[in-house]
Amino acid sequence: MRRVCFQLKVRPDRIDEYKRRHAAVWPEMLEALYAAGWHNYSLFLRPDGLLIGYLETDSVEADELKDVQARMAATDVNRRWQAEMAELFEDLDGAPDEGFLELEEIFNLEDQLAASRHAAQTAQTTAYETRTHEESN
User: Which of 22, 39, 118, 133 is flagged as catalytic?
Assistant: First the structure.
């Protein structure tokens, strides 16, 4: 699984409209997103229009985001949705789902906790095996 976080800027005078449209996303758009590999997808909006999006894809490949974007771009519902949404954004080059700035993930609790627990378990196992070997000699 790959986690993706991105940012866009909603025009401050269009924030209410942006919220309204996302309160009732078209069912066919929801299905298309899911089918294209956009999972656990969320949007967060500051009062000044800064929009942060988060999604997970089924792959860990770096180019997976491009793949899920391409799958969506191939759908008619996405073309219609992006055309309607584009007017709500500032400084956008292209469609909203292609013009966002991807953010670098620098920390994930579950990943680091799993690594830490694995290291601790490995150290315990090694210590036990060393003691057992010394006692048998």
Answer: 22
